[in-house]
Amino acid sequence: MSIAMLSATPPPPSSRTTRRTGKLFALTGAVVGVIYGYDTGSISGALVFLSKDFHLTEAEKGLVNSILVFGSIVGALIGGKLADALGRKTAMLIVAGSYAVFVALSAVAPNVVVLDIVRFLLGIAIGISIVAAPLYVAESTPARIRGASVAAYQVATVAGIVITYFVNWGLSGGGHWRWMLGLSAIPAALVLIPLLRLPDTPRWYVLKGRTERAVEVMAMTDPDVDPRGEVAAVASALARESGGSARSLLRKPYARAAFFVVGLGFFCQITGINAVTYYSPQIFEEMGFTGTGQNFLLPSFVQLASLAATVLAILIIDRLGRRVVLLCGIGTMAVMLAVLTAVFAGGALQGATTWVGFAAILLFTAAFNFGFGSLIWVYASESFPAQLRSTGASVMLTADLVANLLIAQFFPSLMAWAGAARTFAGLGFLALVALVFAAVTAPETKGRQLEEIQDYWANGGRWPASPAPVRSDALSGSAAPPTTAS
Questions:
Q1: Average pLDDT of the chain, as a whole number
Q2: pTM score
């Protein structure tokens, strides 16, 4: 990298160009999130009917769910390297194309073996997407709104789950499970159009030494900062780092950050959210609700409440901070799991008790999306410097998916073996452990630049007492204005 490469600031893009680019970023992230949410939730309804068509055993039902998660683990493991090597944008193009192909193939699967193979491949695409998409948004968004922008991906994901439940309800009368699985192939193909028009992130361009392009895109995506100063800061941070391998996460100063993100990712899923997502018709039947229509419609209202909770988190996440949102969400989950334990321990469910259980499921799911659901994407993209960011996100989300795999495979067996009361009591205990873990380890990163957050981990999990120094543009010899938290 030379001085000449950053010696001249490119002409600022017009406000019209900036608004258009922002809309394309928002549209792309939203559509990818909706598709991810839809593909995650669609099996909950389809499984009821395809189990009859394919004459599945209980073990085979569990495999249809867990094989997607297993593929997601593989995708998350390779997602970071793919996003670094080919770019965040290219990784998302691969994801969108894979979604379209494998979703369509799952809808025409002739038997359960083919369905499992296709769902495994779809899972790989999902694993890549949950690494690449938040990175793409976080690295293209100003610090003052980054939390809300990344959390908006979770809003889109929840919206996708809401859509899938209403679609499942609408198609349940005829048992059209192939349509339930296949409809998302259409938006997956359409999202390729805006993706092709968008640039990659400034930080990835710096990572690859393309500083002129980085300055140009920085000016396009964040008109509130000096693009030369920001790109110089990113380049300086990259120059101080060596290597982006998972092994780097085990060494100081990032071992503490790695412990935090792995723990957060694991607790996010092991506390049981996808037990509700995957098996809600069975849970509501256990509560005493009867009728296919009712057991398909009630989860739709649960997800609508979750969507409202996620929107609320977005409205306050950059005002109140990450910790308040995260801890309130986990605490409410623990309380609702205690309520569910009491409801199922009371014996026969009927009348008001049944609706208390429904309300607890609704609030539990909403609390997850308010706290864990909104913040995991933010912390995954914030906790490491640029050269380790995608690797760290992969590690965090791999831990998340391992816990997800355990829930997907063993929750039905655990319900049958231990009973609903003991199962939800165990999840409640795990939620309390998660609350303590988050209270001790989660940093408050509101308004911090991505390069600034690494100082927290380098300082032993504390923000440096002295104010951040004024950044100097060492590459051009001129001083860059300090970036202030908002």
A1: 79
A2: 0.70
